Amino acid sequence: MDDRMGLSNRKKLANENYHEPNKDLTKYKDLAWSLEQQAAQHPRLCGLTLDSVGAVLGQLMALMFPHFANCKLTRRPAEIRLTEIDRELNSIISCLKDSERVPRIVEDYLLQLPSIAEECLLDAQALADGDPAAETLEEVILSYPGFYAVAVYRLANPLLHADIPILPRLMTEFAHQRTGIDIHPGAKIGSSFYIDHGTSVVIGETCVIGDHVKLYQGVTLGGLRVEKGSQSNKRHPTLEDGVTVYANATILGGETIVGQGSLIGGNVWLTRSVPARSRVMFKPSHTEDMITYADEMDGSGI
To answer: Which domain holds residue 219?
Structure first.
């Protein structure tokens, strides 16, 4: 008896909440048409979103480093996981690039994973060796935002060079939102690259960064002028091997070269080149001459 009454009440409630579908459709007919017309102006990206790109990155990182895979995933053969990511990348890139070469592009890309992993390990080792707070390499790989952001850059850069649109930018933007570190996939970055802390670091599209370079939080490697017509020019600075740039320094301009082994202090604003082994620091007490070069300072206060 109780069950029958319960069923009756549920039917009554369902009837009260029921609306004629045709009325609802008619209500939003004009709005739906307007939105569909607006959406038709944009290419169909087959559901490509930052979240779906993040899932692909998770698969790629897990293939290179078991740190990013759960126990269930690591028990599955790598060959099967590679086949799955091959299908996923083919599906994504086929929506972005109309080419018969897509399967070959994906295969060539996946064949680069071992060398990308080696580059990432050099980055991790640089962090482990250079940061007194780092106790193990595994700690760096698992928890350092600088390692993750640079690893994603290294995964995105080959796709950019393969002329794949949108996807490389979405990859580095996913890392940007996760870590606060904004690296354009078009930048050229050498080996053993070190970003410590990392929040608010910006590395522009045409930056050239040598080997064994260290950046700290808040560093901007940007353009001196923002002009749309200059996108084909080198707009961002060059940092040669062994350069260290401390927190919140800003280095701007495509012609600006920071020479090998130079040290740029915190809060410096630099728009001209400095020679090798320079030391540049911010002097807040001298507003007209805020930059001091190697032969004028003893290196203190950096």
So the answer is: 187-302
Rounded to two decimals, what is the model's pTM?
A: 0.83
Examine the pLDDT at 13 and tell me if it is beyond 70. Answer: no
Answer whether 156's CB lies under 8 Å from 168's CB. yes
Q: Is residue 143 part of a domain?
A: yes
Q: How confident is the model at residue 179 (pLDDT cuts 50, 70, 90)?
A: very high
Same domain, 211 and 165: no
Q: For residue 92, which of 161, 152, 173, 165 has the smallest C-alpha distance?
A: 165
In this structure, are 262 and 288 located in the same domain? yes
- Let me know the angle formed at the C-alpha of 61 by 60 and 62, rounded to the nearest 5 degrees: 90
